[in-house]
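Batch manifest line 322
LIGAND: acetyl coenzyme *A
JOB: complex structure
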Amino acid sequence: MTYSRIIGTGSYLPDNVVSNQDLEKFVDTSDQWIQERTGIKQRHIASDGETTCDLAERAARNAMEAAGKGPKDIDLIVLATTTPDQVFPSTACLLQSRLDIHGCAAFDVQAVCTGFIYALGVADNFIRSGSARCALVIGAETFSRILNWEDRTTCVLFGDGAGAVVLEASDEPGILSTHLHADGDYANMLEVPDGVSKGYDRMRANAAFVEMRGAEVFKMAVNTLGRIVDETLEKNRLQKSDVDWLIPHQANIRIIHATARKLHMPMERVVVTVAEHGNTSAASVPLAFDTAVRDGRIQRGETLLMEAFGGGFTWGSVLARY
Ligand code: ACO
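JOB STATUS: finished
ARTIFACT:
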């Protein structure tokens, strides 16, 4: 039986840090409100001209270095983003060229905040079916580009960044299971209502922005993530106590606390980066993952539960032995 194993992680954050106090200067908000409601203290924002592919490239190079892999080793690139550089080619193809990788399949996956979980699920299936041996999986966003900086209910929540992993075929697990879900009936609770084929004028005027019914999204996220924890453990016949680390999507510390409670997980075993990164959408899980690998918290052989919830609605989880 072939499994996929995570053999290297990497991440990258833009240099420009915007604190809650910085936001207070031009939005009707306060550091206290943002911290109490979300746990966010600051976020990194890409500079003018810095693109999703730029962030993805830095994260991918870090992950490939950690994995000890070069361009010739990679035979699949799956990149999750909601904020691609261009309509086409895909950001995965742009990245492929930057990394001097040629010929292998490269494509983007769009599942908003669940994007990285989807990308990991897709790459895991490619490897387990024998269609790929060594995959580069990235979550990268310049989410700041689709924020209305006059809408205090959304602009304080998000940030930019990228995270990546290298997956390799292995006789030993590896990724134990992936669980991907969506329900498009909830599309208008969290959306950018404009795009190329609809509302193009607003797109061209750089006025296509995130709109969110925050309180409803919050409730759905808490309930749905609770269910995905049960589904993941049942599928693997594991107990809550068998999970060493929870690596959640970093949207809101209160949602993270609720999922940790569901798992009976002390917060010391939950990777939390939301205070420093904000919600970086598809980049949030791999950014948190890489942070805890590089600071030595996550060790080889430990069992990791990654989960996310986002626009679509989409939601999913990955259970992996690191
Ligand atoms: N600063 C100050 N006050 C604010 C701000 C702000 N930035 N934003 C909203 N408020 C006000 C509101 O206007 C409201 O005032 P009112 O009572 O006078 O009407 C009050 O604060 C409470 O607003 P709520 O929306 O009820 O606040 P809530 O406690 O629900 O927190 C939040 C809002 C943080 C957005 C929360 O609902 C949340 O985290 N939702 C989920 C976000 C999420 O997880 N998204 C999913 C992933 S994102 C993706 O997929 C792209």
